[in-house]
Amino acid sequence: MTMGMITTSIATIPTITTATSMLMTTNEPVAACDLAEREAAALYRLMTWLSPAFPVGGFSYSSGIEWAVEAGDITDVATLADWLDAMLADGSGFCDATFLVHAYRAAEAGEDASLSEIAELASAFVPSRERQLETTSQGRAFVEISRAAWDAEGLDAMVAACRTPLVYPVAVGVVAAMHGVPLAPTLHAFLHALVSNWISAASRLVPLGQTDSQRVLVKLELAVAATAHRALKAALDDLGSATFRADLASLRHETQYTRLFRS
Q: Domains (ranges, CATH) in the chain?
């Protein structure tokens, strides 16, 4: 092949710049590309924020499950699944999900006074001192680390508007709203992470094997979806908890003699 032929061949290959210019001559491909990039960025951030590797310290809390195991309430896959299903549907799972939804919407709308009231109510709903430590510590870490890693216009002002330390679900809702991450996937990801952390704690306490832990997660798939669906439609007046045994577990854990977890 002669040098002239090589030159001609290279000249016929469109550069990235040329291809980009060609793409930008119509609105539809650009809009689709922008949408795909926004969706990818949102998914990436959700996967990062709610990953077990995100350093909010979730591994050190059991939400009272440690006491429930010692008391004999949780002994195997079936009893763990029943316990967590109740916590999701009738306890802290539903309440946290509802607070996340309302915090997200208040932050998205720039309603700092409403957000402050939601944050205060969410803190008041926590049933024990250890659970208060659990949720506020994770909330504080979530805001600080996400803020250090990503810029989000308006986040500092929204956090400052709250007169009380942010509990974890409120922190997630505010950060997601300020980053423009859609509400529904944020809520589902949060509940999945919450349940996964409960299962992780139980797997070390019962103990459960890795396969059994995944079986519990599968059993709770519909419960997570149902809880998210309810929370998206719930008013603050719909909040309430009927998991007295789980609340008692979080209280009694404070005086439990041998403990692996902080709650």
A: 62-255 (1.10.4190.10)
